[in-house]
Structures are given as structure tokens and as C-alpha cells.
Amino acid sequence: MIRTRFFARAGVSLVALGVAAAAQAQDAPDAAEVVVTGQRASQIKSIDAKRDAIGVVDVSASDDIGRLPDRNVAEVVEHLAGVGVTYDQGEGRYVAIRGVPSALNGYTFDGMQIGNTDGTTRALPLDIISGQLLARVEVAKVKTADMDGQGIGGNINLVTMTAFDFPKAFNVSGRFQAGYQELNKKVPIQGDLSVAARFGPDQQFGIVLGGSYSDRDFYSQGFYPDNWRPDARFARGGVPDNIKYTQYSLRRQRQGYTGSFDWKASDRQTFFVRGIYSKFTEDEIRPRYRLDFATAAIVNNAANGFVINPDGLTGSVNSGTQRREDLRLDYKSKWFSTGIVGGETDFDAVKLNYQGSYSHNELLDTFPIWQYRCNPGKVNFDFTDKVYSAAPVTECTANQLSFNSYTASRQVAKQDIWQGKIDGTYALGDRGFIKIGAKYQTTDQGFDASNPTWGVGSTAWSAGSAGVSAPGVCVYPNSNNTGQCYFNSPSLDPAASLAFTAANLNNPAFFKLNTATTLLNETLSDFSLNEKIYAGYAMANVKFGVVTITPGLRYEHTDTRVTGFALQNGTTVVPQSGRGSYDDFLPSLIVRIEPSSQTVFRLAYSRSVGRPEYASLNPGGSVDTINLAASFGNPNLKPYRADNLDATAEWYFAKGGLLSIGVFGKFIRNPIFTRTTVVTNYSYGGTVYPTFNLAQPFNADKGDIVGIEAQYQQLFTFLPGFWSGFGIQLTGTLTDSSLRLPSGRTSTFPYQSRYLYGAELFYQKGPVEASIAYHNTGKALLAVGDPAYNDQYNDDLRRLDAKASFGILKEVRIFFEAQNLTDEPTRQYQGGNTNWLIQNERYGRTFYAGVSAKF
User: Fold this and answer.
1) Measured between alpha carbons, how far is residue 621 from residues 525, 610, 637, 828 in Å?
2) What is the model's pLDDT at position 685?
3) DSSP H helical segments within 391-542, as ranges?
């Protein structure tokens, strides 16, 4: 009934917009002339691309000097309607479209699949790619039959620049900026340079070369309790096991290069070669304070003296507590590269397009981890603030921090994708076209983890006796109280820890190799996978007056082979292999109605697939004895399959002006969810752990996502004088979802935010350009728990950014940017209760100043 009312109201809105738009379009005056430069050039190109598309497409286009806004591609598309972005350490990373998780998107480079760099997932971390390298980013929410079937949420297509995109034969543009970061007072830098040229007797050759580089050294300060459970004695209705906090020190570097070569050999023949390469590296130091003061074992043992005061917020525990100090040194490097060759041959009524591509992606992640423990005795706690406090009455000394374990983790992932595609398009004159094509894709995905683990040797030792301790550090994770210090003392010195370990790792007095745990950790995560996809399709695009109909049918056959390792009897590792294949017929029908040059209506049905994550198909899994968590795969998973319905109404009422509203529904079979279970007294590798988080993917029965999205953009060029430079852009998406789990209970769809909305006020007149942008990504389920109070959620994320630039010469501008002006943290919580905080991570504000030029 709720969804019936939802669609009914949405339908009324569509009809009302359509009637108003059609009526006003009949006698609408010509739009006022605008100066098509800078951000206005980007906005107008984006709107024109949306209007001309067959399906439902939103576009973020470069400005007149071939440059996209924001630091990376994830932040570029965040401003589009229906797009939600998950942030990591203050930067946008993964993109959800219309409430569908990022792993269910398609990712293409000039129309060819590009895979991923994270090794175990189909979600491409878009922070690896700089927005400065691209002409535009297209988000196709309704796909035609000539597009890959993967992508229930949609397809994100990265489009490179060509020399024929520029009005002049020779173009050079560049930019450099330096900044200031609030938390660590460091100076991040970023720069890019591109050259585009056309040459030859008839300028039939075109070449573009571009490069970008950024270097950012920064802090994030976080608060991370976990394992909340119901307890009516507490005012929050529950209590976590512990308090954890840390100050991460990170250095992120991103370098990228693009190139394209085009040859217009004749009026009937063109060839091209295009490529993109991007490398992302991250050095991270993670000293983590952890205090277990309220585990079930502590609370339920009367001898520990656990006391909750009548206010339900404060209390103490006399004994049984455990203090940990962990140090993780994480070096991560990701390579992303794709090359495409292709061409087009024109045989009058028939055009033949053909292209082949190769993608190679790699991940290298090394992270040694040291863990020390002590028993500090009495602990006082106070839950008055959401970012609560708990601390020993007497903190442990370095000599009391006893060595517990050392793990030298190393993960390597490699992916190779070969593709070939050929299309034939038969023109029907002014009536449209018929198109048929075929594609072959093969993917080899490999993942190898090495995690040798050492425990205490024959002689107990401490951080103090080894000389690896460091002075205490204040952590400030609370944006609402930036002076509130969470004191991590004693901490661990990275250089001293590395030196001591290197000198003594082979000394049995200090380190004892845990052979059972090492064997399991070095094999369970490893897998190799080959996936072949054979596809063929046919579609037509036929115009009947103001109505254009685009029917299509795509067929895909998927053949998958996976090899991994499984655990038998808790201790024995055995090889496992599996093979699966499935067929999908993917029909689509798009009706485009254009009653005037200013109004477009679209009605669409399409079917799409979402293949399981690579790691989810692994017969084995991974076990983390540091964070007490394990995940296992499920090679019997079925792919997601979705039937999608869309209806949109768009009114292009002026140049650079748009008012659109759309409704959509996705009805999904076999949705895959991760069920997380907290077990007690878990035995692994010969060790019994008091609590352990176990996660494994399963297919649910069905799920659905319905929503309505709207967009309004206008340049106020009709206003007099100064006011004519203003413009505004508003986006909003409301979604609702349902996921029926095997247990029988109903949940929302993972990563589906009920509310997504944004607003941008911009100004451009004379030498001045400026904008201020706000974006809200609403609460979203992250992982399904068992029982339900173990569900994990992202909280609302609100971003406020501003930028301004000033032309000092005809081709030179200076600019200023301010990011995260509200010092917004990223928050996660448990059990649907925003007071059950499991992450509050703060990044501070960042400011930039720079210069850009074009010639």
C-alpha cells in the first residue's frame, strides 16, 4: 500500500510537470544569451548531453578548458541526482546509484569495462582516478541493449578528451594548487597539465596528452567502539564491549596520465587509440588505543564489581578490564590501466564500429601489526556524550604493556581483462537506426595473502623493555567538542618497532611463530577466478513524429571458474574448486516523447544483472585475529537479477536551465547480503577467543527499491546587472527499499539512503566565478546482523564546500577552495540506534589556493 501511494503521488507529479512544461514551451521566449565559459560551459554541456540521450543519463562535463571539478571521480558525480558517495578518510571513494551498492554498478572507460583495483570486489574505488583527466563522466541509469548487462544501479562511463573536442587546433592548459589542512597544519599540493593538438594537411590527426599529480599528508582522528548489545540498565538501551580511538597519519599520492590519438583517414574511415593510467599510493600509521571494560564476560561476573549509577550514563568496573595498544603500518598501492584501439567504417547506410581493449589492475597492501596488552584494573566510564569516555583510574605503563602478537600481512591482487566488441548500425534515414552487435570479455582475477603470525616467545617482554614505546598523543575525534582529548599513552614508536622486530624476529626468546594460524591465514584468503562473458544484442531506434521507441534485447552467457581453499574440522586446509555458468536475456524498451524542443518524456523498462563479488565466491575466506573478525565466501551464490521501471519528465526551459522529475523502481531477485554474527568462545587455530565476528554472504529471496528524484538548474541571466551572474542547482532523491532475508525478517537494502539531496549556488560574471555547494547523503544500512541489533549503518553525511576564482589575465585565473567547512565527521552506528556509535571519524577543514591557465 505504501509503494502504491508512492508511485501514485510520483505519477501525479510527473503529469503536472509535463502539462506545465508543454504549455509554457509553446510560447517560451528565446533564452537570454549567456557567456559560455568556465562553470557555465560545464553546466550547459551536461544538460545538452542529458537531453540528447536515449535513456536516462546524467552527465558531469568538463569546463571550457577541459577540466572537471573536485579531487576525484567519486566527488565529481556526487553532485548528480540519485548518486550517493561513501567517504574514506575524508575523500569520496565508492558510489551508490539510486540506493544500489557500488559493487552492482558497471564501470567503463569509453564504453569498455575497466574492472577494479581492490582485488576482491567489483566496486571500483573512484578516488583512484583524478577528475582532471577526463572530458566528462556519464551516469547511465537506464541502459540500452548495446551496454553491458552488469549494473543494476547504473553504469559510470569515463570519457576521455580528444583533440576534436577543442575549438582551436592547439591547446595547452594547466593548474597548480597548494593548501592548508586544519588538523596537522600540512600543505597538500595538486597539479595537472594537458596538451591537445590537431595536425596534418587537413588536421586529420589529433592527439591529447594529459597528466595529474597530487600529494596529501593529513590526519584523521577517530573513535571506534564495537559490539553493542542490549542492556536496559543503560540510558542508551545498550552497552559496547570497549572504547577505541586513534589518530591516523596518512600520506596519499595520486598520479595519472591519459592519452588519445585519433585519425580521420577519410570521410568514411576513422581510427583511434586511447589509454588511461592511474596510480594511487597510501602510507598510513595507525596507533590504536583499545580498552575492554564492558564485555559480556566482565559485566556478568559479579566479582568484577561492575556498577551502573542510577542515571544510566556513568559507572565503573573494578577488575577484569583489558587495555590494548595496537600499531599498524599500512602501505597500499593501486595501479589502474586501460588501453583501447578501435575505429569506424562508413558503408553509406551501414556503419561498422569495432574496438578491443586490455585492462590491467593491481593491488599491493602490506601492513605489519603489533599488539600489546595489560590489565589496568579499575575503569570509570561516562556515556553522557555520544562520543563517550572510559579510562582507567591508573593507566598502564610501557613496562606493563606486554607483547601479545605480531603479524606481517601482505596482500597482492592482479586482474587482467581482455575485451573485443563489434557493432553494426543501419541507418533508417530520419526515422532512426537498427543496431546489432557482439562482445566477448574474459577476466582473470587473482588474490594472494600472506599473514605469518608470531606470539610470545619463551621470555615475556614489554613495550618498555624492548624500547619501542613512544610519548602519549591526544586524539580529538569529536567535532562538537574539538578540545576534548582522548589520551593514547603510552603509544608505540613505528621506527623502533620495525627495528626491534627485524633484529629479533628469529629469536625464539622474543617471537614464536604460530604455525597453525599462519598456515590458515596464508591460504584461506587466496583464490583465482576466471570469468568469461559472451554477449550479443539487437536494438532499434525508430521515430514516429514526436515519439521515439527504442526496443532491444541483449543475451549474456557467463562462465565462471574459481579455485580456493576451505577449512575442515577447524584446522585442516584443503583445496577447493568450483564452476558455474548462467544465461541472461536482458530486454529493454525506452519510449522517448518530445512534444517540443524544450520538453522530453521518457518511459523505460530494462533488465540488468549484478554478479557476485569475487571474494564472495571464494570457497575460503579470511580471519583477522587482531580485530577478532572473520569472513567466509559462498561459491553457491546466484547473481542479482533486476527488472527496472523508469519514468521521467524533463523541461529545458532556457539555455542552461532544467527542471526534471523521475520515478523508478527496481525489483531484484537473489539479492546478496552479508550476515554478521557475534559468537562467543570461538576456537580458531588452536586459540579460543571470547567473542568473534563472523560474516558470510547469502542470497535473500527478493528485494526492491523504489524512488523519486528531481533536479532543478537555472542561470539567472534575465536579472539586471550584478544579479544576472547568479545561478542555482538543486537535486533531491527519495528512495524506499525492502529486502526479505532468509530468517524471515525484513530489512532495507544495503547502502540505500532514504534521502539524498544537494544544493549549489554559483556566480559567474566578468572575471569572477564562485560557488558554494552542500550535499547530504542519508543514513544507509552497511551490513545485516544476526540478531538484528548487530546491523551496521552509515549515519547522515553532510558536506559543505566553497570555491572562487578570479581572472587576472585573459587566459589566467587564480582560485581558492575550502573543503568540509563544517568539519563534518563520518559516523557509523549499530542496531538502528544512532546512539550506538561504532565510528566517529574527523578530518578537519582543508583550504587551497592556486592558479590555472589555458593557451
Assistant:
1) 5, 21, 15, 25
2) 62
3) 463-466, 494-504, 515-523
Domain enclosing residue 459, as ranges = 2-854
Helix, strand counts (H, E) of the chain: 7, 50
Whole-angstrom Cα Rg for the chain: 28
Query: Is the bond preceding 368 in cis, omega lying within 30 degrees of 0?
Result: no
Half-sphere exposure of 573 (CA within 13 A, CB side): 19
* Structural element, H or E, at residue 690: strand 687-699
Distance CA 555, CA 770 (A): 48
Phi-psi region of 22 (alpha: psi -120 to 50; beta: other; left: phi over 0): alpha
Compute the distance between CA of residue 610 and CA of residue 641 in angstroms, rounded to an integer: 6
Length of the chain: 855
C-alpha span between 131 and 322 (Å, rounded): 46
Tell me the pLDDT band of 8, cut-offs 50, 70 and 90: very low
* DSSP-based three-state secondary structure for 185: coil
DSSP code of 123?
A: -
Contact (CB, 8 A) for 780 and 794: yes
Query: From edge to edge, which strands make up the β-sheet containing 389-392?
Result: 307-308, 314-317, 379-382, 389-392
Q: How many domains does the chain have?
A: 1
Helices (H), 273-384: 296-299
HSE toward the beta carbon, residue 446, CA cutoff 13 A? 8
Mean pLDDT of the chain: 89
What are the residues whose beta carbons fall under 8 Å from the beta carbon of 423, sequence distance 6 or more?
Answer: 146, 352, 353, 354, 435, 436, 437
User: Which CATH number do you get for residue 495?
Assistant: 2.40.170.20
Helix (H, G, I), strand (E, B) or coil at 264: strand
Q: Say how far apart CA 64 and CA 760 lie, in whole Å.
A: 20
pTM, 2 dp? 0.88
Rounded CA separation 165/53 (Å): 18
Q: Could you give the 3-state DSSP secondary structure of residue 46?
A: helix
**Positive/negative CA dihedral, 501, 502, 507, 511:** positive
**Do 340 and 273 touch, CB atoms closer than 8 A?**
yes
* Buried b or exposed e, range 827-855, using 16+ CB within 10 angstroms: bbbbbebbbbbbbbbbbbbbbbebebbbe
What digits encode the pLDDT tens for the residues 72-129? 888 888 888 889 888 888 788 889 898 888 899 999 999 999 988 888 889 888 888 8
CA atoms within 13 A on the CB side of 80: 30
What 3-state class would DSSP assign to 779?
coil
Residue 818: C-alpha distances to residues 181, 611, 815, 848 (Å): 10, 39, 11, 6
pLDDT at position 522 over 80 = yes
> Is residue 181 pLDDT above 60, yes or no?
yes
pLDDT for 70 equals 57
